[in-house]
Structures are given as structure tokens and as C-alpha cells.
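Researcher: Here's the sequence for the chain we discussed earlier.
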Amino acid sequence: MASKIRKNWKRIRPSSLPHAMELCLDHAREKLNRSVDSVADLMGVTNKWNLYKWVQGGSLPTRLIPPFEAACGINFISIWLATSANKLLIDIPTGKRISQTTLAELQQNFSQAFMHLSNFYEQQTDLEDTLFALQLTMGDIGWHHANVSTYAQPELDFSEE
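Model: Thanks. This is the structure I predict for it:
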């Protein structure tokens, strides 16, 4: 029996707006067990066929991006919009401690980015792969920078213990 390879959603980046929308729907299906119809319902779209049309044409109305991403559980459209404008996004950190595993992942991302960069200058690595590796590493560093700066004043935790 062949095992299904799971996607690492943190490492996937969309290449276009339609691709971003498809990735969002893939995430909704794989991680949240939501169909396109249920995503449309959660967005408040009365005619599910409109969502199919918007995904096919890559033309989701701007006001529906936040509810679409919320229903899908991931923000690939926002990521694509920012990166297509040459902007770098980082998740807002909470100023909490991190694990050694997180630091090891940071080191691994550094190593991969350095390898891609070195290979790129030797004409052995694809431009897009190199840019992706660098973007991922810069985002990680930005997150850690903000996390360290907010560590002294962490967010209020309103959860009950």
C-alpha cells in the first residue's frame, strides 16, 4: 500500500493568484476536510458557482480574500500579493520561548539558503528556488528578531489554566 506524501504547508509558496487560490482550497480539503462548497458557505457566498468561477479565473473580489483565507485556514493569497510586490511577510511573534527544534530548523533553512545561493552563483540552481530559500530564511530571521524584541513584554495570555 503506497503512503500518501504529506505537504509541508510552511514551505509552499504560490506562483500566481490562481495558484494561491488552488493551494488555499487544497489546504482546506487536506487539513480541515472542507470542500469548495463548504468554503463558499463559510465565506457567506450564496452561490457556490461564483467561487468556482473566481478560482478558475483567479479573480476573487478583494473584500472576500479575508473570509476565503479564514475558511481555508491558510493565507496563500496574502502571501502571493505581498511577494509579487517584492515585500517580505513574517508572522507576528508573541515573545514566547522557542524550542531547540525551532532553532535547528532555522539552522537548516540557513544552510539550504546558503547552498542555493552558492549554487546559483555557479549557475547550478534555479533562480526561483534560490529566491524562495532566501525569502524563507529572511522571514525566519525577521520573526526571531521580532520575537526577541517582544520577549521582555510578551502578549497578555487570556487563556484559562
